[in-house]
Write a structure and sequence with these properties.
Length: 188
Amino acid sequence: MEVFESIEYDNVNFTIEPIAIGEYEKCSFVNCNFSNVDLSNFIFIDCNFTGTNLSLIKLDNTAFRDVVFKDCKMIGLQFDTTNNFGLIVSFDNCTLTNSSFYKTKIKSTSFLNSNLSEVDFSLCDLSGSVFENCDLLNAVFDQTNLEKVDFRTAINYSIDIDRNKIKKSKHATSELRGLLGKYGIIID
C-alpha cells in the first residue's frame, strides 16, 4: 500500500479526480469533495478534514486514527463498517445526520457544535465523550454506554435510562425531559 505523508489537498474534487488508495499520514483535506466516493480499505492517520463534503462515502474497513473533522458535511456515513482498531475521531461544526456508529467503540470522542440528527449510536461505547452544543434530534441510543458523557449543552436528545448505561453522565436541567419522557412525567 502506497503511503502519502504531509500533503495538503485543497479544493480537490475527488468525484472527478480519483484519490489513490493508500495510507495517508498527517495530510490535510481542505474544501474537498468526496461525495459518494469509495474509501474502503484506506488508512488515515493524524489527518484533518476541513470544510469537506464526505456525504455518502463508502467506509468498509477504512481506518481513522487521530482524525479531526471540522466544518464538514458527512451525511449518511456508516462508521460501523470502518476498521475499529484504533478508531479515534473528533467532530467540530459538522453535519452528521443519518449516520451510524452502531457497535463502535469511540470512547472520549468530542462532538462539538454539530448536527447529529437521526444518528444511530446503538450498542456504541461513547463513555467519556462530550456533546457540546450538539443537536441530537431523533438520535438513537439503545444499549449504549454513556457513562461519564457530557450532554450539558446538547439539545433534543431522548435517552431511555433503563436501556443505556448513564452512570455519572452530565445533563442540563432544561433537558431532563429527554431522560424522563417515557415515564409521562410533566417537567415544568
